[in-house]
Write a structure and sequence with these properties.
This protein has about 210 residues and is mostly helical. It has one domain: Arp2/3 complex 21 kDa subunit ARPC3, CATH 1.10.1760. It is about 70% helix and about 5% strand. The chain has eight helices and two strands. A two-stranded antiparallel ribbon has the order 1-2. The protein starts with a helix and ends in an 18-residue tail after the last helix.
């Protein structure tokens, strides 16, 4: 939810590289790390429930922001336009956020679960990075295109897509030692290491 708010601002980190990102890139990749941990330890079905929960909270936040923006401000309050500009997310941003989150997270979880079976539970780093490479590609392209195509300059849009995607994949790769530590701790503490051999991967089935 925080990423959706700050994503409306493109930021430039290194001017000589024209490294343009949206503000959400600083935080959003953490959700993919959590997703990888969930699938690795508890399996796809439990991750599916968390994805739907995240989708629901994002939708609730968008509706709440819209409702508060639409309510008339007190006459003494002079910040309505600024408040609306940041929190009054356009339908395109809301749609882009929800669609990209849903598609990207499910792709990430599916790849993670299938690769765990394929690798026999070995080489965790190959699963976390590969699932991020695919899931973040889906997420980044969908969100930026739906939310900002025709609003931002095409050059800026393409740079943001490129650098956002690159940053998210590098983020995941650099976080690999942390992911290993969390996964190892949870597997030991929960006595759980789930393999999705007989899992129904339909994203609309919520049973575990």
């Amino acid at each position: 939810m925080l990423s959706n708010i700050v994503a409306v601002k493109p930021v430039r980190l290194f001017n000589f590289l024209h490294l343009d990102l949206d503000g959400g890139t600083l935080l959003f990749p953490i959700s993919y790390i959590f997703g990888d941990v969930l699938v690795e330890v508890y399996g796809y079905a439990r991750s599916r429930r968390v994805i739907w929960m995240g989708f629901g909270f994002n939708l609730l936040a968008a509706l709440l922001f819209w409702a508060i923006v639409m309510l008339p401000p007190s006459p003494e309050w002079q910040m309505q336009s600024a408040f609306a500009m940041i929190l009054g997310q356009t339908p395109r941003i809301v749609a882009g956020s929800l669609i990209a989150f849903w598609c990207g997270e499910f792709v990430n979880s599916y790849v993670m679960a299938k690769m765990k079976i394929f690798t026999g539970g070995q080489f965790l780093w190959t699963r976390t990075i590969s699932s991020t490479v695919v899931g973040q590609a889906v997420d980044t392209i969908l969100f930026q295109t739906i939310a900002f195509a025709g609003v931002w300059d095409t050059g800026l849009l393409l740079r943001v897509i490129l650098w956002n995607y690159t940053a998210k994949v590098l983020y995941e790769a650099l976080a690999t030692p942390i992911t290993y530590a969390v996964v190892g701790f949870l597997k030991k503490a929960e006595q759980e290491d789930y393999y999705d051999y007989d899992t129904n991967f339909n994203p609309f089935v919520l049973s575990t």
